[in-house]
């Protein structure tokens, strides 16, 4: 059944929250002012929802209990939010293994969350976006917040993502200093038509080039966000071609497992994949989704998500703790890696420098130049000069 709510909608998500660096502990705070959101222009009007009455829905691409990849990381963020705010488990409803290529399955999962009384629903995968858009129109009193997308309706449907390319650049430094063959592999879920993946590859490759201009990055595409076997096979093909460091933008630890089995090194994604492949993983590019989930749910409780006014999309960064890098493996990284990464990270967090500033010209691998601002990552459909595609 459709649950009618009286919600407030704020132009921004400006609540301080507890979360940092992959932890769900509640000792530190972060403000959305650092994330690129607009500062609140005034007090919100309208009633919120009592904390004990809020119900949160989540749609996962895979089972978070299996593996340490994408869905696992989102689940860690959800559990961090529950702890930060003090919600009970019966205030959370989750749907798992919902394929984002099956529109009927997505609609069914979202409908069930609506019928179970969820006030805010987080849909975590790109392929859920269009169905969320339609459902938000059908249920205007329920908030649909979509991860990794690029659509919103200005009222009860927004998207959330972050400057993950910042951490990817830093991880590229680790890879560029470590490689001995000057051939670095990268397992990509999608090809150049997907700006999220492509901009991340470019940031990684730019990090590589900043410390090792002789190294090349070879990309192999799986054409799937979640394909445990295919991701591992792609990594093995790259290793067979001479790559001795394997990066990834895909959902499982398969590439890191392949790296360990073949005696090379890797850079994980989503969570700290040194748990899966301790003898191979130099570091991992990570999300702390609790940063966003906490403030979004708190805004609904506080009545600072005001219906009828513009909803800001969220684009977090290293400064607010949404994006981070796992601890470096001191036994595996090359000399000087930690010092170089610390130097560049300080510039990023302070705002002194960023990978994609919208001004600096970047040379692609076809001889063309581009500029890219990080918030426009979705428009990136070209590879930088030291990237090659591998069939």
TrEMBL record:
PROSITE patterns to which the protein is assigned, alphabetical: PROKAR_LIPOPROTEIN (PS51257)
Keyword Translocase on entry: no
Stretches assigned to the ABC transporter substrate-binding protein PnrA-like domain: 56-351
Listed InterPro entries: ABC-Purine-Binding (IPR052910), Peripla_BP_I (IPR028082), PnrA-like (IPR003760)
Highest taxon in the source lineage: Bacteria
Signal peptide (residue range): 1-18
Keywords: Signal
Protein name (record): BMP family ABC transporter substrate-binding protein
Native organism: Allofournierella massiliensis
